[in-house]
Amino acid sequence: MTCTRPEASQISDKFEEVQQLIHVRDTMYHSLQAQADVAHTGTSDPNLIEATMEQTGVVFYINQSKYILSFELDAKYIHSETLVVYDSIRPTKLYNRSYDAATDSTSIEFGSNLKMSRKSQDVISGNTINNCSVLAAFGKSNVERTRLNDVYDYFANSKDVLAPGMLLSGMSNHDWIKTRQEI
Fold it and tell me: What pTM does this model have?
C-alpha cells in the first residue's frame, strides 16, 4: 500500500504531534522524579527546593517578584498545589493545598504573609473542590483584595496559558520562551 502526498503529510503531522506529546510526558516524568527525590530525602536546602519547584511548576514574574506555582494532578484530582513568591532571596508561601485520598478531602494552608482574613480563607477552601485549583476557587469567591488578585489576573489575562483542546504542535520550546518574553 502506498500513501498519497496528502496522506504522507498527515502522517508526518501526526508523528510530530506524538513526538511533542512524548517530550511533554518525559518532561513531566523527570519533574515528578525530581520532586519525589526531594520529598524522599526530606531536604531543607532552599536551593534544592527552589530548583525542584522550578522543574515541577510554572515560574512567572509580577512587579519584579518571582512566583512559582507547582501542582500535581490527574484526571480526577489536584493532589497538591503550592504558590510561593520570592520578594527576596527566601521563598514566602502564599498557600499550600493537599488532597487526602483516605478522607476524600482537600486542605489548604494559607501563608501569613498573604494577609487574608480567616473568613475569606474559609470561603476559598469551601469553593476548592477536588478538581478545582485554589486560584480558580479564589476567582469565583467574593473576598478581600490580596496578592492572589495579581496572580489570578496574570493567568486570566495571559495569552499563552495552556487551555483544554490547545494543540501543542507547531510551537517549539524556543518559540514558547520568546512568546512569553514578549508579554
Answer: 0.60
